[in-house]
Amino acid sequence: MEQLYVRPEYRSESVGLMLLNKVSKFAISKNWGRLEVTTPPLPEFERTLNFYQKNGFSISGGRKLKIDINANR
Known about the structure:
Layout: H1 15-29, H2 46-54
């Protein structure tokens, strides 16, 4: 999943769980073997990490990296 975002005013209202359920059903319909998400290794994303773990995701290692090629010109 590239991004799963719930606006702050809708958090803790099961919106994220509903989205995960929809994505899971879609993945099953496409015969995907797994879903992957990435959270930044920052303290402010601890709640996000806990949400995913509570809903069956496990840490698989590695970090997502990116570079803004326009910033290096």
